[in-house]
Amino acid sequence: MTLLRKLSAALVVGVLSFGLVACGKQEKHMPPPSQASGKVIHQAEVPLNYEYAARVVAYRETEVRARVGGILLHRNFVEGSEVKQGEILFEIDPDKYEAAVASARAQVAQAQANYDQSVRDADRAEELVKQKVQSTSLRDQAFAKRDADEATLMQTKAELRTAELNLEYTKVAAPISGLTSREAVSEGSLIGTDPSSSLLTTITQFDPIYVNFSFADGEYDQIRHLMDEMQQRGEKIDNLKVTVRLGEGVDYPEQGTVDFTSPTIDKQTGTLGARAVIANPDRRLVPGMFVRVTVTGIKMANAMTIPESALVQNSGGQFVYLLKKPEAPKAGENAPQGAQPAAPAAANGQPQKVAGRLMVVEQRPVKAVRKMQNGDWLIDSVKFDEKDKNKVVQGLRDGEEVVTEGQVYIEQGLMRIPQGQSLMVNVTDDAPQQAPDGGNAKASGPAQ
Prior knowledge:
This protein has 448 residues and is α+β, with helices and mostly antiparallel strands. Among the domains are: 47-59 and 209-300, Efflux pump adaptor protein, beta barrel domain (Elongation Factor Tu (Ef-tu), domain 3, Beta Barrel); 60-205, CATH 2.40.50.100. Helix content is 25%, strand content 35%. It contains four helices and 26 strands. Strands 2-11-14-13-12-15 form a six-stranded antiparallel beta barrel. A five-stranded mixed barrel has the order 1-23-17-18-24. It is elongated. The two termini are 65 Å apart. One of its GO terms (biological process) is response to antibiotic. Belongs to the membrane fusion protein (MFP) (TC 8.A.1) family. Keywords: Coiled coil.
């Protein structure tokens, strides 16, 4: 009897040991659970920037030309130096113009004397007519001579003014402030007043300065539409702001504003010309320089952006892996193994992570339309099925969750998770909520 009990106990121990070894081998060969990370996507107001190639153009560039001819006596500036408006740059030989002024003054004096005498003669003729000792015909002749002498006086005064102006023009002043170019003619040269011989130098104004660029036709229409929406929301709309990036990739410190847009579209390029004005106190921006401009100040309301890591591309187009809660188990079925309750709300203002939840993976087509400065992608608005308005066929709704890391567990050739199968996901939700005290708090978990 004792021997039989010992044999029975040994048999039970052996069977249990074999079962434990078999279970250990089975666990050893089981694949690790599929893990991924996700993020809740929320609508938000996002700034939109538009970048274009641009060219720097002088604010003003003026040719300094001689208005009278003669010998160029003096150049009173250093080539390439800065000059002020009204500063005398060149002096032309004034001798003949001084003589012309003297001659004109003499002619004015003579005409004045003739006119004065004509006035006296006309007055006497009028008096004699009143005394009936002279005919009205002689009086009328006296009046006509008086009027003619008055016209001659006015003409000589005008000629004197012309002579004085020509004398003034022998001193060539700077029409604007700016930097001068090289002289076009040297001292001692004979200059004229025709276009081929009158140019003396050129002055360029650098501060402020213009930057010319072109809007794409469709983008400008979008910008105007977004600005109208901003005004409807009560936001203050100033001129569009512009930042400049130099050729070496360095951002220019001054910000400019768009001060002009062309009223028509260029037929050859299909673009709309625009211009920005920018302060240039250090003259770092030089006319002719090629730069990149970024137009800022535009905001889009209710925009949807997704991390670049969530965007997947294949031959069928762009899509994301959408996360959904598994369907509740039917009566008599057990809940999915590994499922964990949602974590409590974060109290430190940091993005809340919900660890280890089982999610269902679904492909959702999206259309990425613009890459944001932070690397995220702006996607097109959500589109619904024509027959079933509750069924989304493209895009995302507010609060939906997408896979941002771990797509390798879903892609073909690795640990593929067929559509509809559960996946362990750590989900982050960084959407702000209004806290009871008026501050900002973070969402307690992903939208369900």
